Amino acid sequence: MIDQASGKHLFLVLGLSLLFFSPILILIIPTMIPMTLYFEKYTWVYYTLGESYLVFGFGLATLIVCCAILFLGKLKKWAVSVGIILTVLACFLFYGSAVGFIAFADEGITYRGIFENEKKFFGWDEIGHVKIEQLVRGTPPEITFTLKDGEVLSFTENGHVRDIRGSMRAKFQKYNIPMEHTYAD
User: Fold this and answer.
1) Which of 9, 56, 86, 116 is deepest in the core (most CB within 10 A)?
2) Do 21 and 79 reside in the same domain of the chain?
3) Are residues 127 and 174 in the same domain?
4) What is the rounded distance in angstroms from the CA atom of residue 11 to the CA atom of residue 24?
5) Which residue, among 120, 121, 145, 123, has the nearest Cα to 132 in the 3D structure?
6) pLDDT truncated to tens, each residue of the chain (185 aa)?
């Protein structure tokens, strides 16, 4: 078993490592999860929700605080109890960040929000209206899909979505989906 002094320092090293590498982890892991866990053939692009990055960051912060408490609490019983609770909370936050994505494919769009249990799929023919709005020049536009049943899906365009813009426009034309553009002056 690890003695108290070396165990305490193990959590110091772990916490500092998480703190140091957290910017890299926040950029890479939430982006990779939808591409690996939810991969389907003929999918154009997987879009990671902005909230996924935020929730994942809170999970990392929770683990860093957990390591700090275990280090400063000298692995006493109360510190270990709080550490276990914070670790469970971090796992819950990591799960929540892992499930949120939007996938664009030939058949339609698959969506799953943060902490939601079920994926929602809607075909291109179910989209009633598309609104592309760029209010400030130089910023990415906000894209809003309004389905025929009234449900709304909004997200900010990133480089991956910009790359498939032509494919999406072809689907909009094929299914006669009206588009509304609003650009900054």
Assistant:
1) 56
2) yes
3) yes
4) 20
5) 145
6) 456 667 788 889 999 999 999 999 999 999 898 888 888 888 999 999 999 999 999 999 999 999 999 999 988 899 999 999 999 999 999 999 999 999 999 999 999 999 998 999 999 999 999 999 988 888 899 999 999 999 999 999 998 899 998 999 999 999 999 999 888 76
